C-alpha cells in the first residue's frame, strides 16, 4: 500500500509522466521491500508552487506506507526519488521536499475495508 504523491510546478507531458510513474513505482517497491502490486504513484504537474520565494521548477512529495519506513530507508527513498525528478524533469534536488508517513494498517482503506 505504499503511496507516493508527487507535485511539481513543471508541466509534465504524458511520455515523461509514464516514465516517472514506472520508475518511481519500481524504486518504492524495491527500497521498501514491498510488492509492486500494492504500490500507487500519483503525479500532479503544473501545480502552483513557490519554493524559496521563487516559482522556478520545484517539487514536493508525500510517501505513505504501512511499515517499512525509517531513517536509512527514508534517506534511500529521498535520494532515489529526487534523482528521478532531477533526471526526468530537470528539477534540482535542492528544490524538492518529501514527507514520509508511517501509518497503522487500520488507517488505510483498501478493497472496501482496511489493511
Q: Give the tally of structural domains.
A: 1
Output the CATH class name: Alpha Beta
Please state the average pLDDT score. Answer: 97
The major β-sheet equals: 4 strands, mixed
Radius of gyration: 14 Å
Low-confidence stretches: none
CATH architecture: 2-Layer Sandwich
* Secondary structure: number of strands: 6
Structural class: alpha/beta
Output the helix-strand order. EHEEHEEE
Amino-to-carboxy terminus distance: 9 Å
Q: Per the principal axes of the C-alpha atoms, what is the gross shape?
A: globular
Brief write-up:
The protein is α/β, with parallel strands linked by helices and 115 residues long. The protein is 33% helix and 25% strand.
Textual characterization of the structure:
The chain is an alpha/beta fold and 115 residues long. It has a single domain, classed as Macrophage Migration Inhibitory Factor (2-Layer Sandwich). It is 33% helix and 25% strand. The chain has helices at residues 14-32, 71-89; strands spanning 3-8, 40-44, 59-65, 96-102, 109-110, 113-114. A four-stranded mixed β-sheet has the order 2-1-3-4, with helices on one face. Strands 5-6 form a two-stranded antiparallel ribbon. Helix 2 links the parallel strand 3 and strand 4. The model has no long low-confidence stretch (mean pLDDT 97).
SSE diagram, text form:
Elements: E1 3-8, H1 14-32, E2 40-44, E3 59-65, H2 71-89, E4 96-102, E5 109-110, E6 113-114
Parallel strand pairs: 1-2, 3-4
Antiparallel strand pairs: 1-3, 5-6
